[in-house]
Amino acid sequence: MTDARAYQGLIRKDPGAVPASWKRAAFALFLVLALVLPFMLDNYTIYTLALVGALAMAILGVNLLTGLSGQFSIGHGAFFAIGAYSTAIAMNHGGSSAFGALPVAAVVSFVAGFLFGWPALRLGLMHLILVTWGLSLVLPQVLKHETLQDWTGGVSGVYLDRPGPPAWLGLNDDQYWYFITLAIMILFFWIAGNLINSRSGRALAAIRDNEIAAAPMGINVALFKTTIFGVSAMYAGIGGALTGLLADFVAPDSYGLFFSILLLVGAVSAGVRSVWGALIGSLLVIYLPAAAGNMPAATAVPPFGFAVLLVIYFMPDGVSGLAMRVYRRFANNRKYG
C-alpha cells in the first residue's frame, strides 16, 4: 500500500488557508439562510434556488475533475443528461420511486464516466477536449433516435411524476423539493470535501501537480484518473436527475454543447479548486443568462459573454480565488499592520 507521506511533498501547499473556525461560521450562516429563505420567497424563486443547488453539484463535478486531477472536459452536459434520463427511465419503465431513481442515476452516471474516462487516458489534453466536445454533440442526437423513442421520448422528451410532500410537513411542493435538493447537495459537498482532504485526494493532487513524479511513488495514475472521471460524472448525473425531477420533464435539446460550456463557465467562475464556490458558479450560470434574456434578442448574448470575460480577466482563479486573496491581504495587514 502506498504511504501518503511518500508523495505529500509533491503537492503544492496553500500558504494562506482560511481557519477552520471561519469555515464553520460561514457554513452555519449559509445553513441558517438556506433554511429560512424558502419561507420568505415566492414559489418560483424557491424553485429557481433549488435549481441552483442541483446545478452546483454538476459544476462541482467539473471542479473535481479539473481542479483536483488536472483533467479537462467540455462534455459534462452529457453526463448531466445521462443522470436525468436514467431517473426518467427508472421511474417510467422500472417502476421506481423518485427517491429510488436517484441512486440509479448516480450509479449509471459513475459507470458511464468511468468507462468514458478509461480510453480517454491515452489522449493528450487537446484530444480530450475534442472527445468530450464530441460527446456533448452526439448524445442529444442519440437520445432523439427513433429506436430509443419508447425509452427517451425522442424529440418530445419525457415527463416525470415526482411525489408531493407529505401533508404532515406543512410544506408546498416547491419548498419540499427545495429542502430535498438542499440536503442532497450538502451531503455531496461534504463527500467532495472529505475526498479532497483524504489520502486519495492527496494522490490526485500529486498527479495533477506532477504526474511523472507521482507514478514512481506507487500511485496508480490510470486508476485514480479514471475513477475521478467517474466520480465527476456521478456528480453531474445527480445534478441532472434532480433538475429533471424539479422540472418534471427532460428533453434532449436541454443538454447540448452550450449547456456543457455553461457548466465549465460556472466552474471557472467559481474557481476550479473550490468546493463551496460551485454554488457561486451555479448562481452566475442561472442568473446571468436570465438577466440577459430580459433584453432584446439581438443584445441578449453579448452582455452575458462580456460578463464572463470580465470574470475571467479580473478573477482568473475564480470568485473563491479572489476571496482567498482578500483574506490573505486582511491576514497580512493584521499580522504586520
Would you mind describing this structure in some detail?
It is a single chain. The chain is an all-alpha fold and 337 residues long. The protein has one domain: ABC transporter involved in vitamin B12 uptake, BtuC (Orthogonal Bundle). It contains 14 helices and 2 strands. The protein has helices at 20-36, 43-69, 76-92, 98-120, 125-144, 149-152, 173-196, 199-209, 211-214, 221-247, 257-270, 277-293, 297-314, 318-336, and strands at 158-159, 249-250. A two-stranded antiparallel ribbon has the order 1-2. The longest helix has 27 residues, at 43-69. The chain is globular. The termini are far apart. The relative contact order is 0.18. Residues 9-13 and 293-301 have low confidence and may be disordered.
Number of DSSP strands? 2
CATH class term:
Mainly Alpha
Biggest sheet record: 2 strands, antiparallel
Mean pLDDT: 81
The structural class is mainly alpha
Q: How would you spell out the order of helices and strands?
A: HHHHHHEHHHHEHHHH
Strand order across the largest sheet: 1-2
Cα radius of gyration in angstroms: 20 Å
Reported by name, the CATH topology is ABC transporter involved in vitamin B12 uptake, BtuC
CATH architecture: Orthogonal Bundle
Uncertain segments: 9-13, 293-301
Shape: globular
Could you tell me how far the N terminus lies from the C terminus, measured between alpha carbons in angstroms? Answer: 47 Å
